[in-house]
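About this split. The held-out portion is used to measure sequence recovery: a designer receives only the structure tokens and must propose an amino acid at every position. Recovery is the fraction of positions where the proposal matches the reference. Here is one held-out target exactly as it appears in the evaluation file.
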């Protein structure tokens, strides 16, 4: 029982499905939060992990925003991590089809879509998708 509890905690923070223990965490709704919301540990862990995983792409830094984080490359926001710890990349017509094919969820009215779990767990794909979102964000300026 303790092992299952630890597995569930790990799945929540790392966003991984562990089929052997059947502990995929399902989220109901993604929200960035409201001004003044307290920063959550789920957001911090996801944001810092993302920052480490994308460090080869250059100057990736985080800013606290509404209980979550904005993720920036050379001063341009290309991703956000909501207070639940879910990761969203900036999308436009150049990369929208990738997210639609993965049935990714849009973040409210903002041009950000949730990064699929399969992408988060594949280092090369994650870097590719992040690189495209960085270009999208820079072109939007």
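Reference sequence for scoring:
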């Amino acid at each position: 029982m303790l092992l299952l509890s630890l597995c569930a905690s790990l799945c929540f923070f790392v966003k991984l499905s562990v089929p052997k223990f059947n502990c995929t965490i399902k989220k109901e709704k993604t929200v960035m939060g409201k001004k003044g919301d307290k920063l959550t540990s789920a957001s911090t862990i996801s944001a810092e992990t993302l920052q480490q995983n994308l460090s080869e792409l250059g100057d990736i830094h985080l800013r606290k925003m509404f209980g979550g984080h904005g993720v920036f490359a050379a001063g341009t926001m290309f991703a956000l991590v909501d207070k639940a710890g879910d990761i969203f990349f900036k999308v436009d017509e150049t990369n929208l089809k990738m997210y639609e094919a993965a049935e990714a969820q849009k973040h409210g009215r903002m041009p950000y879509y949730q990064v699929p779990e399969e992408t988060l767990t594949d280092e090369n794909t994650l870097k590719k998708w992040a690189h495209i979102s960085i270009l999208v964000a820079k072109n939007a300026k």
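Annotator remark: The chain has one domain: 28-140.
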